[in-house]
Write a structure and sequence with these properties.
Helix content: 40-55%
Strand order of the largest sheet: 4-5-8-3-9-2-1-6-7-10
CATH class of the largest domain: Mainly Beta
Number of strands: 10
Structural class: alpha+beta
CATH architecture of the largest domain: Beta Barrel
Order of helices and strands: HHHHHEEEHHEEEEEEEH
Distance between the termini: 78 Å
Mean pLDDT: 83
Shape: elongated
Number of domains: 2
Strand content: 15-25%
CATH topology of the largest domain: Cathepsin D, subunit A, domain 1
Largest sheet: 10 strands, mixed
């Protein structure tokens, strides 16, 4: 007779079911929600704990009912056809993950009855898989500027503010050391917003912010452009406002139809501080 630890049953099944529900939501076309995936995982964990105490619940009809309840907690409300399609995808993922865990259990000396209760390595792998699914979802949610949309850019540089308007240029391949995209700003816009002293310091060895030389290739030849990293950057559009950490590269001949900046499509956008956003808008209007 095997000793069963309910807390381990809850942990193991929650981790595995959370990952299954998260992938199921992503494949169903519905926005993957961490709370909903956790709700589905919690239903699966409670069922597994109850089945450990009442072996009758391990019968196939109860397993199917529990799986439907998991999917309902994670996916509803949605159209019935979409729900059953999403449930089918989640079931396929469950077969894949469950088969992998069962195979690893047998491989390392476990049994069908005891599972991997005495195999902590597999438990850590299951928990790691849930964490990896969580991180992968976060990575897939990263936002980038969209082509065809105009943006307002507010950059704080050594106590001064630079205001720009620009759009995404897919030909802007400039990136910093970390691979993050850069903004190319028209020289006249930069020099018109920042003081002459600050512009001179950016171009000298006494720059108050990090400065980097960017190499570029163009039809007319190759060259170098100087860029600086502002203390903070806020990028705004009709869809929302975002913070970004990116270099602003000083270029020539960019101003056109009220636009004076070219954004790289590789700039990572984050949630912006609303108080800083209000301050930026107020100072721009003044």
């Amino acid at each position: 007779m095997h000793k069963i630890y309910i807390e381990l049953v809850l942990l193991d099944n929650f981790a595995l079911d959370f990952a299954i529900m998260l992938f199921g939501l992503r494949m169903s076309g519905k926005r993957a929600s961490f709370p909903r995936a956790a709700a589905g995982g919690a239903v699966g964990a409670v069922y597994a704990a109850a089945a450990a105490a009442l072996p009758l619940l391990t019968l196939l009809p109860f397993k199917l009912a529990a799986f439907l309840a998991m999917c309902a907690a994670a996916m509803l409300p949605m159209r019935p056809s979409a729900f059953f399609a999403g449930t089918g995808r989640a079931f396929a993922i469950a077969l894949l993950f469950g088969g992998a865990v069962l195979g690893a259990t047998f491989l390392f000396g476990g049994s069908l009855g005891s599972g991997y209760v005495n195999l902590p390595g597999i438990r850590y792998a299951v928990i790691g898989m849930a964490i990896a699914a969580f991180c992968l979802e976060l990575l897939m949610r990263r936002r980038y500027p969209s082509p065809g949309r105009s943006y307002r850019i507010y950059a704080d540089v050594a106590g001064e503010r630079l205001c720009l308007r620009g759009f995404v240029d897919t030909g802007n391949g400039l990136k910093d050391f970390a691979g993050n995209g850069a903004i190319v700003a028209d020289r006249r816009a930069v020099e018109g917003s920042l003081s002459d002293g600050l512009v001179a310091r950016i171009k000298s060895d006494d720059a108050p912010v990090p400065v980097h030389t960017f190499l570029y290739r163009a039809v007319g030849g190759n060259g170098e452009l100087v860029g600086f990293l502002p203390d903070s950057v806020t990028i705004a559009a009709d869809s929302g406002k975002y913070a970004a950490k990116c270099y602003i590269v000083i270029g020539d001949g960019i101003s056109k139809e009220g636009m004076n900046a070219l954004l790289s499509p590789d700039i990572v956008l984050h949630g912006a501080d609303r108080r800083k956003w209000k301050e930026n808008v107020f100072k721009e209007k003044k």
